[in-house]
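Before the break, one more example. Copy the sequence into your notebook; we will annotate it together after we see the structure.
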Amino acid sequence: MKRRQFLRWLTGSGAALLSVSRAIRAAPAAFALRTVTVVRFSDAGVSLGPVTLPLVQKVAEWKRVLSPLAYAVTRRQGTEPPFSIPGYNRHDAGLYRCVCCGNALFSSQTKYDSHTGWPSFWQPIAPQNITTHRDFMLGMERTEVRCTLCEAHLGHVFDDGPPPTGLRYCMNTVALRFVPKPKAS
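Here is what the structure looks like once it is written out:
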């Protein structure tokens, strides 16, 4: 590269960098990490209060850290076959956390047997820890439930549950990690 060509390239590169720098300063929110607020819980199910954290994003890592079925369900909005995963009918005391990020989602105190083949709950452990979205994937409108902290697909919520809420949070077993309630010492 001749000196003159190099100087033109350098000038052009500098102008491009200056342009990008100005764009970043003009719209800092577009380049900032997205944060979410969730309620933290101990493994004993005790609320530790709200905390604001960066959204968990492991785009390239999810396939490596999750089982193929958990990846298909949580990252690709799949569904496991009913009655197929051990633990769907668990009745032990404990906490259900997101298999992807560990966010507390449900307590065994709100779990019930819906006879559907999936773990069902009548309310989340904290409303801030889940988000809901309209879902039209099967040609009908449903309400999808996702983890607030990492946006993992968990299942769906329906209005045919028991009192006191009348809701049925129908979750995929592979989307949840059960943590037994610690024994009192």
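The first helix runs from residue 3 to 26. Helices lie at 3-26, 28-31, 62-65, 68-74. Try to locate both features in your own notes.
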